[in-house]
Amino acid sequence: MRRLLLALLLLLLAAPAVLAAESEAVRSPRATATLVAAPAAVAPGEEFQLGLRLRLAPGWHSYWRNAGDAGAPPEILLSLPASPVQWPAPERIPFGPLVNFGYTGEVVLPVRATAPATLAPGDTLTVTAEANWLVCEQLCVPEDGRFHLEIPVAATGRPDPALAPLFTAAEAAAPRPSPWPARAAIAGARGSLVLEGEGLAPGAIRDAFFFPNESGVLDNAAPQPLGLGAGRLTLGLTAANPAPGPAPARLEGVVVLQDAAGVRAAYQVSAPIGGVPEAPPGQALPLARALLFALLGGLLLNLMPCVFPVLAMKAMALARLSGAARAEVRAHAASYTAGVLATFLALAAGLILLRAAGVAAGWGFQFTAPAFVAVLAWLMLAVGLNLSGVYALGGAVSAGGALAARGGHLGSFATGALAVLVATPCTAPFMAAAIGAALALPAPQTLAVFAALGLGLAAPYALLGVFPGLARRLPRPGAWMERLRQGLAFPMYGAAAWLAWVLAQQAGPEGLALLLAGAVLIGFAAWALGLAQRSGAEGRRAGRVLAVLAGLGALALLPGLAAAPPPQAATEAGAEPWSAARVAALQAAGRPVLVNLTAAWCITCQVNERLVLRAAPVQAALAGRNAAYLKGDWTNGDPAITALLREQGRDGVPLYLIYPAGGGAPAVLPQVLTEGIVLRALGEGVAP
């Protein structure tokens, strides 16, 4: 009896080894790998599951089909015909500024194979496999192994009770087909993924992330802001920079949703790419608030230094309206307002078209082109020469200068247009949020926000149209107007000089030389035109010809300006060049980071830097907190800076961010800084 019991015990102990379809392990200090099968026995011709089982040491990870920013996926070569790996949904694995996609702990990578139909019950199915996998922690180690597995053949297959649960868990972790229609959009660095259907609601979903099937499509480290509405989920995406090759026609991958209880569910997504990226609800301002912010921002824009040169023309226009009839006051106010609105709407339409074409364009984007800066500088010079009396303009060629010379409704309209063009280097309070929201909205709402911005800018002048009696309180026209007109030329010369400085930052000495040569030609054209206006018929014709030739000569310099090499960037004392990788590295080193996104043509930026950021108390606070100061220069445009602006819901500079030590999202400071604002933000770690 004792011998019988001993034999039964030995049989029971041996049973798991016989029935458990798992190969001998390949072991390392980093991982243990085996080949496993779901059935304990297979029937001839039956489809069954095999898998590479990886048990990873703590701190180590392996990779998904798209490894992310670094790494490589495991590869399996079987002796049987098999399906591709049915990849379980991965997790995000950050490493410094990089983010990888893969697995930690234990994972089974299953495939489906078919037993040969020629087998008979009682035979043994022999399966061999070769596999390689990469495991990483602080360093990465490639590993490989050969595996041998023998599975009994029976008339009816049966699952292995010890290993089948592994495959059940892998199947539960694998993405299932998405029940919701999906669409995607990518324009420049910005993108979005939208799912629509039942079950997508704020209370039902707590978090979401999209894993693209292919590398090089998206910026893996960029956040994916989530927005949820009734039956609608929107994820904000950031395109890879630079994206390799042509843009894909579809965005394919896995979206992983986490419900309120923290349970993950993964879905396969194949979304056609087209249209304009959408902002996640809750990430952008509601339309009503965006309109209000735009109106307030446009009103405050009148106080920004960018608009000071145009105030010269406004002052002359207001003086000329003194004592005018109510109808004339209303007409001039309407003409100026129409010029402002038309130009704002034209800018908005241009931005919409450029973004639809995939160009990263934002507020003030035209100032990133040296040729535009040069033309605007010459225009300011020409207006100043007109105000100084070198020549006179009238009729259909007013273009803004005629407002100061002799008025006219076309001049009022042109003054409004010019006010908008010279206002674009500035960003007033409320404007950044409004413009950021506008460019994330559908086109009609974008146009509405820009129109509200225009109404705010035109409001002081437009009030004369509503209350024309105010014009009667202005000083009466007289000899003082001529002296005022000549004196107001100097803000125009100052604006031209400032634009020359901006262009020197963009195109270096070569570009500045071309700008100055063009300025000489513009001055000659103004002198020739003035001479013609004071001469007889023959002299008038010759002067006009000379003026036209000089103007064309200036325009001929523009291609050279566009090709002029930019100067080597000079690093400001105490500042480092901005990069996303540098920010992440500094945070990981335990240092807070102040980021200043600026441009040479942004007057608000320059004022903040000189009066606040370079002030001794701010510099002392940076040193005292061991804070790093990074500066991102958007003077000539930069896709990476544009992406950061979009990430923060902005479309123009300035933007000031304070990143906390150790990691985390940044705090956003106001656009108009004071020493107190920066010191409190550095001291408390949050922005007011």
How does this model look, in words?
With about 700 residues, the chain is of the alpha+beta class. The chain folds into four domains: about 150 residues, Thiol:disulfide interchange protein DsbD, N-terminal domain (Immunoglobulin-like, Sandwich); about 100 residues, Immunoglobulin-like, CATH 2.60.40; about 280 residues, no CATH class; about 110 residues, 3-Layer(aba) Sandwich (Glutaredoxin). It has 19 helices and 25 strands. The strands form seven sheets. The chain has a five-stranded mixed beta sheet, covered by helices on one side. Strands 1-2-4-9 form a four-stranded antiparallel beta sheet, with helices on one face. It has a four-stranded mixed beta sheet with strand order 13-20-19-16, with no helix packed on it. A hairpin with a 2-residue loop joins strand 7 and strand 8. Helix 5 runs antiparallel to helix 10, helix 6 crosses helix 12 and helix 9 packs across helix 10. About 5% of the residues have low confidence.
